[in-house]
Design a protein that fits this description.
The complex is a heterodimer of chains A (393) and B (761).
Chain A: H1 2-13, H2 23-28, H3 35-64, H4 69-88, H5 93-117, E1 119-121, E2 124-129, E3 134-135, H6 137-156, H7 163-166, H8 168-183, H9 187-204, H10 208-228, H11 230-240, H12 248-263, H13 288-321, H14 325-349, H15 367-385
Antiparallel strand pairs in A: 1-2, 2-3
Helix pairs in contact in A: 3-4, 3-13, 4-15, 5-6, 5-8, 6-8, 6-9, 6-14, 8-9, 9-14, 10-11, 12-13, 13-14, 14-15
Chain B: H1 2-45, H2 47-58, E1 59-64, E2 71-72, E3 78-90, H3 92-97, H4 102-113, H5 117-124, E4 132-139, H6 140-152, E5 158-167, H7 175-178, H8 190-194, H9 196-200, E6 204-209, E7 223-226, E8 233-236, H10 240-256, E9 263-268, E10 275-281, H11 294-301, H12 306-321, H13 324-327, H14 337-347, E11 355-358, E12 361-362, E13 374-375, E14 383-386, H15 387-393, H16 396-406, H17 408-417, H18 439-442, H19 449-455, H20 464-475, E15 479-481, E16 486-490, E17 496-499, E18 504-507, H21 511-526, E19 541-548, H22 550-554, E20 561-569, E21 576-583, H23 595-613, H24 622-627, E22 630-631, H25 640-649, E23 653-657, E24 663-667, E25 673-674, E26 679-684, E27 692-694, H26 703-712, E28 716-721, E29 729-734, E30 741-743, E31 747-754
Helix pairs in contact in B: 4-5, 4-6, 10-23, 14-16, 14-21, 15-21, 16-19
The chains are: A mainly alpha (393), B alpha+beta (761).
Chain lengths: 393, 761
């Protein structure tokens, strides 16, 4: 019923596909940004920054000599990010649509050069060093993918139901991105790129039968990846029985489970965790949620999961209410990306899935990733501004 | 147009909306539900499993060693005590982490601890290890030096851990009784093992959180402290002075008689079962319990095959740790006749005025089941003898007759009543059980040969502790007591956890019977075969024993003997009972192999020292007064005639050397005691001779001959054992071994035995 009602309103207010046309009329319709979404974002950011302090001070002290080092940097980026988010929220949505193709081209160029100029960490070149900070081009590629696919779906409209429009162009773009990520190599980013494409196509109306075909194709690809790459198959073994694996993979997941498990119902108390004293690797980035669970227990974990769920549900709510299809698809894409990252990160630290390097949005240490995260939230907020006041009721 | 577009739009929109709802449900609800379930599983259901493992790796437990209880003798002297010591260990991991020089650390520790440098260097190679022991039980002083070395050079890889070390102030004293503890502070032998749970106490611990690198956590001073509770103290019934005397005489006997398999001696209070001393030869130093005797060491050093060396070393260690008095069984021989006597008197089958005839043997046909005549040790026979004389003579024929009168069934009833069928319940580990004929063999009415042999102590095996306990019952008024070495166990708050178990087990014979047994045993020493155990001034009772090891004889091995003597004193009201066993003397010593000739004088010697120590005053008979050794008075500076008068009046003879008026020197030196009638030499203006002479071999010589021979060399005699006035005494052992050099004027102690008593009894 609610859907029908919404559609009726939409038809009345926006009789044509608004995308890219009549900038002035859209600007006239702009309202306030969505407060619940903003507040939830800020809450997550605040919890995340506090956890960075708790999780990182031990390693910062032992390896850098300054317990506040990571915390100070992250706080700085958080401040910068909030400013970026608020600025972005004032940008017109049509700007993003126009930027979609250039951003994608930029991403492809960066992905193409990163295997050459990128900093080599743990045998892979995924990072570009900017001097003051580093960033992963794959992060930008994900956003570019969302923007480009949204605008493609809007352009193709009902032709999305055909293979020629609804499948082929998307697969070409994804294949190009995955090929470039393969060179780094960067499996986890590939997984997300593929998953985001699937979500966008799904939301955009691609016929379901093609998903079955692509699914089979992906399963074959995944199988090949696992068997071809030694480091991938090691992770599978470590996942299935972490206590039997002597190497770093098994150790990492065991330490994570010790941290989460020893937290119990109420946890050891904020700052009182013990696993961060160099037992748990990557305690302030990929495994920060383990430290959080150790210190704040099952109750704290459920609270954070609930906040994430609320943020994500609010995101989809905004997508459902967006003024136009482009905005709706972008919000769906970014929200799904957020949900995907949260799910994959927590599933990995709890050993539901084999270990991959996926950080936890708002929590994991990493300046540019946080900036980009908040930039994406800014895009959603910008889109939320264009929802007509009556429509938000 | 608008409617048409709207229709397509509507359809597409509916698809998008529907699919966005699906995404909302999957990404916003289902995914989080799945994560919540997973977290519930880890954090709630498996919480304890993970917590346990996490805590295990996150904590460092430092042990606070509980101090082990002290062992005291009856006088409160410390026999075993614990003191702090340290374990020094290295952390090769930290050595690498902090870049410390293994060479430098190894040579420093090697010098301080006396550990081989190469072996330390080898340990530093295992850089993953946090704990590699360099030396345990490092004494405080050395540990301090290690600490100083560590501080001075800021070495983080060297660590010390508190431990305790056991000290035995008297070294070898009562070693098989006390026992020792191993490296892990567990009692391994003797009391240390038997009462380990009392002595140990409970270790405490400090639990601290640590980082993965082993250091303390930042901003976290969590510390859990568990107090150590020290072990309880044990006070023994053993008196270290008596123990010392017993060990001294036992060791001397082993040397004098060339004893091959060691010996054992138990001294006990017969009324309570309190062990006053318990000694075994050979001994070992409790502080170095892995070190074997010099003799064993010399033999081991000749072995080149490592396997054989290991076996032999093990054998030697087990031998020296063995408590023969408890663990070795033997055929007691004639000492057992006391038991036969007691049961016969109690049953009323013999009386003091009964007479027994011994013609040297009992014909085989008189003992059903026997195929050859049963010979007495004296083949000529003892003729007609009273009951007391039969015991004095240790006459086998008489004892077999007495045994026959008792009968096999009664005999076994008493054996049971005297506790020979079961262990005594002694409070030390390693007590063996006895070996007796099965009932159907022993009680067989058609075969009395077992009963006959058992009557004089053969064809069964018992432990020395069983025998001394049973003999105690025969002399203490008839009560079987439980032998024990622990007086009490007290915890650190002074609470008594276990106290002296002097309770009587049961009464076996009447006090009247016991009184007759005491009287007869006294006569065995005063008039019979036990005369060599005589101690001037004291009433000693006792019985000799000489056993051939029949089982080994049967195997065709060379004949081996166990000679023994059991003595009680004072005979009218015994306060101490001593059982001595010497296992396998050889002919090397030239002394007749028998309990009377070998064991009796040793027990006499022990009693001569222990009885005065126990505060029992000597009461000399007239004869004994005549025999008493005399202290030589100082006469230097006296005129010759005065000196002569003084010395002669004290019962000594005098020889004057030199022509002066005044005494310028005397031999032996004043203060020493000598046998009565000794000729003291005084020097008047003549030089007192100095220098050394070789001690003569006095073995087997008569008292007078020995005295004369010594005086010839400027040496003097002092005797003990059988009284010199007894017709035919001979020297058996002497304090200075033959051919050893002794100073002129020395007094040589000799032990006399009665030559009439020589025989296998």
């Amino acid at each position: 019923m609610a859907v029908r009602e919404y559609e009726t309103k939409r038809r009345g207010e926006a009789p044509e596909d608004a995308a890219g046309s009549g900038d002035g009329s859209i600007a006239a319709g702009r309202g306030h940004l969505d407060l619940p979404f903003l507040v939830l974002t800020l809450i997550m950011l605040a919890i995340g920054v506090v956890m960075i302090l708790s999780a990182s001070f031990a390693r910062a002290y032992y390896t850098q000599g300054d317990p506040m080092r990571y915390f100070m940097r992250q706080t700085g980026f958080a401040g910068l990010g909030v400013a970026l988010m608020l600025i972005t929220s004032r940008v017109r949505v049509s700007m993003f649509r126009r930027a979609a193709l250039p951003v994608m081209i930029l991403s492809i160029v960066l992905l193409a050069i990163v295997p050459v100029v990128g900093a080599k960490i743990n045998g892979a070149r995924r990072w570009i060093d900017l001097g003051v900070t580093t960033f992963q081009p794959s992060e930008i590629a994900k956003l570019a993918e969302i923007l480009l696919f949204s605008s493609m779906i809007c352009a193709f409209k009902k032709r999305m139901r055909t293979f020629k429009y609804g499948v082929a162009p998307f697969v070409v773009v994804v294949a190009l991105l995955v090929a470039l990520l393969y060179i780094e190599p960067h499996i986890s980013a590939s997984v997300i790129v593929v998953a985001i494409a699937a979500i966008m196509m799904f939301a955009g109306g691609t016929r379901l039968r093609w998903f079955a075909a692509c699914g089979a194709l992906l399963a074959g690809g995944a199988y090949l990846t696992v068997t071809r790459f030694a480091y991938a198959s090691e992770r599978i073994t470590a996942w299935l029985d972490p206590e039997s694996v002597s190497g770093d993979q098994g150790y990492q997941i065991i330490q994570s489970l010790y941290a989460i498990g020893s937290g119990g119902l109420f946890g050891l108390g904020l700052g009182q965790g013990r696993q961060k004293y160099l037992y748990l690797p990557m305690e302030h980035n990929d495994y920060i949620f383990s430290v959080y669970c150790e210190e704040l227990g099952f109750i704290g974990a459920i609270l954070v999961l609930a906040l994430f769920a609320m943020l994500i549900i609010r995101g989809y709510w905004l997508a459902l209410h967006a003024r136009d299809r482009f905005g709706s698809l972008v919000v769906t894409g970014i929200t799904s990306l957020l949900a995907l990252q949260v799910f994959l990160n927590i599933a990995v630290v709890t050993n539901m899935l084999p270990s991959t390097g996926i950080s936890l949005p708002f929590f994991s240490y990493g300046g540019t990733a946080l900036l980009l995260q908040l930039f994406e939230m800014g895009i959603i907020l910008a889109i939320s501004r264009e929802i007509p006041v009556s429509g938000t009721g | 147009m608008l409617v048409e577009r709207g229709g397509a739009e509507l359809k597409t929109n509916r698809v998008i909306l529907g699919r966005t709802f699906v995404l909302l449900a999957v990404c916003g609800v289902i995914a989080f539900a799945a994560l919540s379930v997973r977290l519930y599983d880890i954090q709630i259901r498996k919480h304890e499993y993970y917590e346990e493992r996490a805590v295990e790796q996150q904590t460092r437990q430092t042990t606070i060693a509980a101090s082990r209880g002290t062992i005291y003798d009856a006088n409160g002297k410390i026999l075993a005590m614990s003191a702090s010591a340290d374990t020094v260990f290295l952390s090769p991991y930290e050595m690498q982490l902090y870049g410390e020089d293994p060479e430098f650390v190894a040579s420093g520790l090697s010098e301080l601890l006396g550990v081989d440098k190469a072996s330390i260097l080898e340990k530093t190679l295992d850089t993953k290890s946090w704990y590699s022991t360099i030396k345990t039980k490092v004494e405080q002083e050395t540990a301090e030096q290690v600490r100083a070395f560590k501080e001075e050079h800021g070495l983080k890889s060297i660590h010390l851990e508190a431990d305790t070390k056991r000290y035995y102030p008297y070294g070898t004293l009562a070693c098989q009784v006390i026992g020792f503890v191993g490296d892990e502070n567990y009692g391994l032998e003797g009391l240390e093992a038997q009462f380990d749970s009392y002595l140990t106490g409970t270790n405490g611990a400090v639990v601290r959180l640590k980082t993965e690198r082993g250091t303390d956590l930042l901003f976290n001073d969590f510390e859990d402290y568990y107090d150590a509770s020290d072990g309880s103290d044990i006070t023994l019934t053993i008196d270290s002075n008596i123990q010392h005397y017993v060990e001294k005489y036992l060791a001397q006997a082993i040397a004098d008689y060339d004893i091959q398999n060691g010996g054992a001696c138990i001294a006990m209070d017969p009324k309570t079962g309190r062990i006053l001393a318990l000694a075994n030869e050979g001994k070992y130093d409790l502080n170095n319990y892995l070190e074997v005797s010099e003799k064993d060491r010399a033999e081991l050093d000749l072995i080149t095959d490592p396997e054989e060396y290991g076996t032999k070393l093990n054998e030697a260690l087990l031998r020296q740790w063995r408590n023969k008095a408890l663990s070795d069984t033997y055929e007691p021989g004639s000492v057992f006749k006391i038991i036969t006597l007691a049961m016969a008197l109690e049953e009323g089958v013999v009386h003091e005025d009964d007479t027994f005839y011994c013609g040297g043997a009992i014909p085989a046909e008189q003992i059903p089941g026997r195929t050859d005549p049963l010979k007495c040790w004296r083949s000529a026979g003892h003729g007609s003898q009273t009951l007391a004389q039969a015991m004095q003579n240790s006459c086998n024929v008489a004892l077999v007759n007495i045994g026959m009168r008792i009968g096999a069934e009664k005999f076994y009833e008493y054996i049971d009543a005297f506790g020979f069928f079961e262990r005594t319940g002694f409070d030390l580990p390693g007590e063996s059980g006895s070996i007796w004929w099965r009932d159907e063999v022993f009680l067989d009415a058609d075969n009395k040969s077992q009963l006959a042999a058992a009557s004089f102590g053969q064809t069964f095996n018992i432990t020395p502790i069983q025998l001394i306990t049973a003999v105690s019952a025969t002399v203490n008024g008839g009560y079987l007591v439980r032998p024990h070495v622990v007086e009490q166990i007290t915890d650190q708050s002074g609470q008594v956890l276990l106290s002296d178990d002097s309770a009587v087990v049961r009464q076996v014979i009447s006090s009247e019977t016991s009184s007759i047994v005491r009287d007869i045993l006294e006569r065995v020493v005063s008039e019979g075969t036990g005369v060599n155990a005589h101690v001037s001034g004291y009433r000693i009772g006792g019985k000799t024993g000489t056993t051939t090891k029949t089982s080994e004889e049967a195997e065709g091995k060379p004949k081996e003997y166990i000679v023994s003597f059991c003595g009680v004193a004072p005979a009218d009201d015994p306060e101490i009972i001593v059982l001595l066993l010497l296992d396998n003397p050889t002919n090397e010593s030239g002394i007749y192999i028998s309990g009377g000739a070998m064991a009796a004088p040793v027990v006499g010697g022990i009693l001569s020292d222990v009885l005065p120590y126990m505060g029992i005053r000597p009461q000399y008979t007239e004869d004994e007064v005549k025999e008493m050794n005399i202290q030589v008075k100082k006469v230097e500076g006296y005129t010759v005639s005065d000196a002569q008068a003084v010395l002669e009046s004290s019962g000594l003879a005098v020889r004057v050397v030199g022509g002066g008026d005044k005494v310028t020197g005397q031999l032996p030196a004043p203060g020493g005691t000598v046998s009565p009638g000794t000729r003291v030499i005084i020097y008047a203006d003549a030089e007192t001779p100095e220098g050394e002479v070789a001690a003569p071999d006095l073995g087997g010589k008569s008292y007078n001959a020995a005295k004369a021979q010594l005086e010839e060399l400027g040496l003097f005699i002092r005797s003990s054992g059988a009284p010199a006035s007894v017709g035919d005494v001979a020297v058996t052992t002497q304090s200075a071994p033959p051919d050893s050099s002794v100073k002129i004027g020395s007094i040589i102690d000799v032990v006399l035995i009665d030559r009439n008593t020589l025989g296998d009894y």
